[in-house]
Amino acid sequence: METLSLHTRNDSTRRTFLKQAALGTAALAFPSTVLGANDRVRVAMIGVGARGMDLLEQVVAIPNVELVAMADVYSRRRDDAKKKVPGMQTFVDYRRVLDMKDVDGVIVASPLHIHARHFVDTIAAGKDLYSEKTMTWSIPEAEKCLAAANASKQVVQIGLQAQSSGAFVDAKEWIKSGWVGKVTHVESWLGRNTPHGHGQWVRPVPPDCTAQNVDWTAFLNGRRDREFDPYRLINWRLFWEFSGGNCTENLVHQIAWIMSVLDLPLPSAAYMSGGVFSEKDGREVPDTIAVTYDFPTDMVVTWQSTFSNQHYGLGDRVLGSDGTIEHHLEERAQYWPEKVNRPMGEAVRGATPDQSHMQNWIDCIRSRKQPNAPVELGYRSAVAVHMANISYRSKKRITLEEAKAVTPEYS
Q1: Residue 244's closest CA among 391, 137, 336?
Q2: Is the pLDDT of residue 12 over 50?
Q3: Single pTM value for the model
Q4: What is the mean pLDDT of residues 134-144?
């Protein structure tokens, strides 16, 4: 296979393309104060569990950024974060963070069922926002968050890190250049595995996870009141009332990448089959999944996932009449021509480097440009994954209109 380097494009052009390709439009400037490149950005966090701690480490590594405060309902997480950043303030109530006048941006990494509350309140407080994926727990929440963001001047980045990958830039360029031709099918997959008897995401409950150390009411966020349950607090991803399962944890990254790289609208319909097959450990969300999306652009996108085998890892294949693009996690994208329609085409391996998703957000706080994973993509990807889950739970193919009419249930 002949390899063609993409490094011929200069760095400035590449950075411009990354931003514009992720949006499909030029980045927007807002009529607000623009921080200089050397101005310190002050950031706070809401939710610092396992994922939140990863984001904490990312943001404190960025020069001229100060993490000044965080809030979490569980005392252990506040203590652990304080060990990483001794000088910052810690709170139980997230509203104390939003009341701080000198905070520029807020990172929301709370459990999925609280995302919308933290999203809307952060925007209302006039703070820029980095919201972990999936943007919301339900479609109505996605509508509410989109409206709030669009009515504001805040910079909103969704934690869809693949949008800042070099693979995204390369694939977008190949498609724009006509190398792929007509695409009617995209294949995607994700495989994970764990030791026998230990299901994916199941985490031990620390001995200090007690009612005295947790604001249980704040965690429930309007769900049915019940006695403190430390297992559900720690393993919320296993239960529908708090989670969207593997679709909101993993499918969302891949469907966002696919929809963005191909400029796809919302799916017209979705069908999802599967079940709890790998480990019968009391979880409600399925561990084995097959999703089929119909798009109004004469395209089918499929996604398969299992928690019983990790041999093929994570990947996507864009299957076009003139060429194929294959994308794997943390690898360069690759292109192969379909010789029947592109006989002079050559195989290419992408060379564009990845960009820091967190750095991109900080840069946009300063410049007031839209980031690589804006709220509109957060909305489209959230609706798509919720359509799949609604199909699974209703045991039928679901249209976009039907999905939007569903009243979310907590259990």
Answers
A1: 137
A2: no
A3: 0.90
A4: 98
Q: What are 251-270's pLDDT values in tens digits? A: 999 999 999 999 999 999 99
Residue 149 pairs in a beta bridge with: none
Q: Which of 39, 284, 306, 269 is nearest to 189 (CA)?
A: 306
Q: Mapping DSSP to helix (H, G, I), strand (E, B) and coil, where does residue 363 land?
A: helix
Q: Name the CATH topology of 24-163.
A: Rossmann fold (3.40.50)
Gap between the Cα atoms of 31 and 46, Å rounded: 27
Domain spanning 165-354+375-404: CATH 3.50.50.60: no
Positive/negative CA dihedral, 385, 389, 395, 401: negative
Domain residue spans of the chain: 24-163, 165-354+375-404
CA atoms within 13 A on the CB side of 324: 10
Q: Amino acid identity of 341?
A: N
pLDDT tens, residue by residue, 276-292: 999 999 999 999 999 99
Q: Measured between alpha carbons, how far is 173 from 331 in angstroms, rounded to an integer?
A: 17
Distance CA 55, CA 85 (A): 13
Q: How far apart are alpha carbons 138 and 129 in whole angstroms?
A: 19
